[in-house]
Amino acid sequence: MKSEVNEIRWLKAQQAEENFWIHEHQTSRYIDPTGEGRSVSVESELSYFGNEVIRNYLLEAACIVEVGCGPIGLIHFVPTPALRIGVDPLMRSMERSGYIDRRGVFRIEARGEELPLGSDKADVVICYNVLDHCESPNIVLAEILRILKPGGILLLQLHTISEWAATFRAIISWLDSPHPFHFSRSQVLCLARNSGFELEFDGSFKRARRRIPASGLLSYDGLRHVGSNWITQSVVNLRLRKPVV
């Protein structure tokens, strides 16, 4: 399985992502710029990783990091007294676009492949629908493993494609500019295992089909979502643990 793309392809994905957030701040198609919609849903989003256990982790943690947090990632809303750190390669651009409410999060602009954090520092790392945006997903997971304390946990979410569609992932990624990668469920599990993580909890579920109005079918975004409805199989939610040596 190919585990990295060239920098030109990654930069194309980053440009698409940057354009998305600029447009999103102006239109609030998915979530309003204040993030209030996200604050309402964070409890249900965390429930996919084992609700009661996750609450305890978040309350007891001293440091929580979200890799690829965007301007309104989960790190901005998790109920915890811990130091919260959000890392994203487009952080300054997103703040220039208007996403300036940090909600107490210490924000860092950096790539997941080069996390500017010390080893064995984080109790919990969140990586929420991010690995398919990266240049080298396996290196990102290796970096997350490095910064986690022994026994620390990773909350990993990813939208996955059907096993049959994975055969055509190179073509799909070429058509879908924001996502250099498209993984099947088995490939995500393989990535996690090969990166050294232990699977602690699997809260994956079958992805519901997105309803697309007829007026949106003529747009690139609308056609992309039609394709997503066709090939996307599940939302993988894994609670992974760094082994205690």
Low-confidence sequence ranges: none
The CATH homologous superfamily is termed: Vaccinia Virus protein VP39
Output the radius of gyration.
Answer: 17 Å
Percent of residues in helical segments? 25-40%
Distinct helical segment count: 8
Q: Helix/strand-derived class?
A: alpha/beta
CATH topology (level 3) name: Rossmann fold
Q: How many separate structural domains?
A: 1
- Largest pleated sheet: 8 strands, mixed
Could you give the count of β-strands?
8
Mind telling me which CATH architecture this is?
A: 3-Layer(aba) Sandwich
Order of helices and strands: HHHEEHEEHEHHEEHE
CATH class: Alpha Beta
Tell me the span between the first and last alpha carbons: 28 Å
User: What is the approximate shape?
Assistant: globular
> Beta fraction of the residues?
15-25%
Keywords:
Rossmann fold, 8-stranded mixed β-sheet, 245 residues, 8 helices, alpha/beta, globular
Please give the structural blueprint:
Layout: H1 7-27, H2 36-47, H3 51-60, E1 63-67, E2 83-88, H4 91-96, E3 106-109, E4 122-128, H5 137-147, E5 148-161, H6 169-175, H7 185-194, E6 198-202, E7 205-206, H8 220-231, E8 232-241
Parallel strand pairs: 1-2, 1-4, 2-3, 4-5
Antiparallel strand pairs: 5-8, 6-8, 7-8
Question: If you had to describe this structure to a student in words, what would you say it looks like?
Answer:
The chain is α/β, with parallel strands linked by helices and 245 residues long. It has helices at 7-27, 36-47, 51-60, 91-96, 137-147, 169-175, 185-194, 220-231, and strands at residues 63-67, 83-88, 106-109, 122-128, 148-161, 198-202, 205-206, 232-241. Helix content is 36%, strand content 22%. Strands 1, 2, 3, 4, 5, 6, 7 and 8 form an eight-stranded mixed sheet that branches. Helix 5 links the parallel strand 4 and strand 5 (148-161). The longest helix has 21 residues, at 7-27. The chain is globular and about 45 Å long.
